[in-house]
Amino acid sequence: MNSRRKFLKSALTGFAGATLLPQISQASTASNTLNEKLISDDNSEAYWNMVKNQFPFTDGLYYFNNGSLGPSPTMVRSATNDYRKILDEFPSKYMWGGWNDEKETVRKQVADLLKTSEEEIAIIHNTTEGMNLIARSFDLKAGDEIILADHEHTSGTIPWQVWQETKGIKIVKPILPIIPKSVDEIVEIYKKAITPKTKIISMCHIVNTNGMTLPVKEVSELAHSRGILVAVDGAQAAGMLDIDLHDMQCDFYTASSHKWLFSPKGVGIFYARKESQHHLKPLIVCNGHTDKTIRRLENYNTRNLPEVLGLGAALQFNQLIGSEKIEARTMELKNYFRAKFEGNQKYKLKTPASDQLSGAIQTLEVVGKDVKGVQDSLFEKYRIDTRPMSTFGLNGLRISLAIYNTKADVDYLANVIETIS
Ligand SMILES: Cc1ncc(COP(=O)(O)O)c(C=O)c1O
Predict the structure, then answer these.
(1) Torsion of CA 34, 38, 41, 44, to 10 degrees
(2) Closest ligand 1 atom to the C-alpha of 204?
(3) Residue 95: which residues within 8 A CB-CB, separation 6 or more?
(4) How many angstroms separate the Cα of 49 from the Cα of each of 57, 97, 323, 381, 406?
(5) pLDDT digits (tens, 9 = 90+) for 214-231
(6) Mutation choice for ligand 1 from 68, 208, 260, 307, CB with most ligand atoms inside 8 A
(7) Which atom of ligand 1 is the closest one to the Cα of 258?
């Protein structure tokens, strides 16, 4: 057993926010037993079935759509409900300052997950807020350039488009290949898009269209050598990959924890490296807006504290399994899924294969069939939820393979697709 697991076992004091609140620290024997089961070197399907059982879905649903929205495991649902109950039983006691220490604990948990410092983390609502926070902070002039590749999500493009329309900044839009051959090929595309007027490169860590992973570290090194800042939309990566933000070197990174971190909905995380924080201005100004720390970016008076503390429970869940193990399982499931379709002329995998270039999101075309019809049949006849992707000529099902999807689920999905095709 590695030292992380030994430490977690010895530190086990129960789940559901045990470290956060005395009221919910009365760990039941059942929850302690579950925690112990989650902290394990076991990588068998029995282990992952036990993980799957933490995510009850509506009857008969096969959920392959985590890229749209993640579910929360039972323990996170319970913790959030407990916080809501405590708050509702004495609202004024907790809302404004009553849960400061607990919130700081969550900040530290986010920092630990992303291997950074809590002084570089703000807790916001979602990626859209994070991307707005970045774009709205910069007072750019007409002619200044921002690089936004063609697969960026509207969360990251619209704030800059508004500056294009109102201030005359220029958006430079490099075209990414659907199946890049290497990291170098992508870095070269970004390199060619840089000019002396480039101020910021804003990029996804994983794009939402076909799930390709972009080389944030290499692009950050390139950008910094030219004095350019790098902002990253991590909505489809945080919680799926084992991330080290200091190693990645980007200036800003934001994500919605309600996707791959399985937190309550409407909570997001924001990172700004220490040296780049001076660029940022709060989106909303109220008490605390002059705070010298990163906390100034997350103040909006009365807020969704049960969900914020529920994020703490989601981070504990993540930590019990471990980010390394989650990333390894992601790649295992991906390769298991791809092996079912690779080499078969009836299908086209529209996501690059290598672990450097993709993770748990894979886009698959059933050749000769319109994706909308395929997606409808999967859902109506077989209760399989996926997301159809028509942009970029993908005509593909976007299939998300989260840790609650087992190999048996993938077998079912592949058999049904074969039947339909
Ligand atoms: C890459 C990417 N960025 C941003 C978002 C927006 O997330 P939210 O609505 O949580 O802000 C999504 C949502 O699917 C996404 O896939």
Answers:
(1) 90
(2) 1
(3) 87, 302, 303, 305
(4) 14, 40, 18, 24, 7
(5) 999 999 999 999 999 999
(6) 208
(7) 10
Task: Look at ligand 1, atom 16, and give the residue with the nearest C-alpha.
Answer: 208
Between CA 110 and CA 113 the distance in angstroms is 5
The tens digit of pLDDT for each residue in 154-213 reads 999 999 999 999 999 999 999 999 999 999 999 999 999 999 999 999 999 999 999 999
Question: Rg (Cα) of the chain, in Å, rounded?
Answer: 22
155 alpha carbon – ligand 1 mean position (Å): 6
Q: How far is the CA of 45 from the centre of ligand 1 (A)?
A: 30
Q: CA 150, CA 207: separation in Å to the nearest integer?
A: 10
* Domains of the chain from N-terminus onward: 102-316 (3.40.640.10), 324-420 (3.90.1150.10)
CA 206 to ligand 1: nearest atom: 1
φ, ψ dihedrals at 232, nearest 5°: -125, 130
Give the predicted TM-score (pTM) of the model: 0.95
Write out residues with Cβ below 6 Å of ligand 1.
Answer: 126-128, 153, 155, 204, 208, 233, 235-236, 256
